[in-house]
Amino acid sequence: MSDRSQLISTGEPFEFDKKRDAEFERLIKRYPTRESMILPALWLTQEQEGWVSQEAIGYIADRIGTFAAKVYEAATFYTMYNLKPTGKYHICVCRTLSCWLRGKQEIVDYLRDEVGVTPGKKTEDGKFSLEEVECLGHCGTAPVVQINGEFYENMDVEQLKSLLATLE
Ligand code: FES
Predict the structure, then answer these.
(1) Atom of ligand 1 nearest to the CA of 97
(2) 99 Cβ closer than 6 Å to some ligand 1 atom
(3) What is the pLDDT of residues 100-150, one digit of tens each?
(4) Domains of the chain: residue spans and CATH
(5) In the prediction, which pLDDT does 2 show?
(6) pLDDT tens-digit map of 8-24
(7) Mutation choice for ligand 1 from 95, 139, 141, CB with most ligand atoms inside 8 A
(8) What is the C-alpha separation between 139 and 11, in angstroms, rounded?
């Protein structure tokens, strides 16, 4: 299992771009408490940067008006948040029971042997990164793979091969 307690610093200040800033302001009016915005704000960050840095945690805490520790807790608890830079295509393979029983390991082995990426790492060209994650909530159509937020269900090696070939 990867260590999700460590945050990476970019050494640069972080802030939302115009689009995410507007979305943040739109959403925060709809939530009963400002702290309910922690998870959506982490999503906005990930949508913008592909991952969540140490600076982003501080920024979100300031924007919401809460402790950085609370944002950190959420970011490190939920495996859907990437805590390090990802490849252009970030592949998440569910490793929980249904997916495990229905062949997730063949998918992970294929990615290691044929694509050259192992969990927690990127390919040398930075095109793909891989992470094994907990249940993606589509257990009835296991095994499930998610690439840059899109779900692909009932996956097998052949389908994944075809799918990856379409990604430039
Ligand atoms: S076990 Fe894989 S989606 Fe639930």
Answers:
(1) 1
(2) yes
(3) 999 999 999 999 999 999 998 999 999 999 999 989 999 999 999 999 889
(4) 18-77 (1.10.10.1590), 89-165 (3.40.30.10)
(5) 55
(6) 999 999 999 999 999 99
(7) 139
(8) 39
